[in-house]
Specification:
The chain has 195 residues and is of the alpha+beta class. It is built from 4 helices and 12 strands, in the order βββββαββββααβββα.
């Protein structure tokens, strides 16, 4: 379903281009959810989130990436979720343009690799230590994406909204600690609807 939103785009301020699209679906082992996408027809800006039908508590998920089977595990990430691979000291925290997605573990690793490419483009040629570090991270991710990690890696999702999940019997779920809740970002805060 799509409807016009009577509010300007938060990016380009177009008064008529904002649309809200909703889609209700069932993800196996995750249950019914609503995918909500806010998009601007004028500039192309979009923000997507996944909202489960049932109320959920803040939680963390983890999965060992120790072989090819782990690569196909389904991952649901909400806009408020922080994604980590602690063994590589990699973390993607939600920002002002964070978006939710449904992917698999391999897709998440590809997203990390894409971020490394962006970071490398911003480095100067004389920053050899940083370039070497990025190359080592890229090699570790490449081995993991081939299903042959040099060391077992752990994919972690930390979500204060509780709307993210790793859909596998091998994944572990736990509540977030008070300290984690106090320090985790909540994701985008787009003032789309005014009171």
């Amino acid at each position: 379903m799509e409807q016009v939103v009577a509010s300007p785009c938060p990016m380009c301020n177009d008064p008529d281009g904002l649309r809200l699209r909703t889609h209700i679906d069932t993800i196996p082992y995750f249950g019914e959810h609503t995918q909500v996408t806010l998009l601007c027809m004028a500039c192309g800006w979009r923000q997507t989130d996944l909202i489960p039908a049932e109320a959920v508590a803040p939680c963390a998920w983890s999965l060992a990436i120790d072989g090819a089977e782990a690569l196909t595990v389904r991952v649901v990430r909400s806009t408020g979720c922080t994604v980590r691979i602690p063994e590589l000291d990699l973390e993607v925290a939600p920002g002002s343009s964070s978006t939710g997605y449904v992917s698999n573990v391999e897709g998440v690793l590809v997203r990390f690799s894409d971020v490394l490419d962006i970071v490398e483009r911003d480095l100067l040629p004389d920053e050899t230590d940083a370039i070497a570090t990025l190359q080592a991270l890229r090699v570790a991710l490449a081995h993991a994406m081939l299903g042959r990690p040099v060391e077992t890696l752990t994919l972690e999702l930390l979500d204060p909204t509780g709307r993210s999940a790793i859909l596998s019997d091998d994944a572990a779920q736990r509540p977030l600690t008070e300290d984690e809740l106090a320090h985790l970002p909540l994701g985008p805060e787009v003032p789309v609807f005014s009171a």
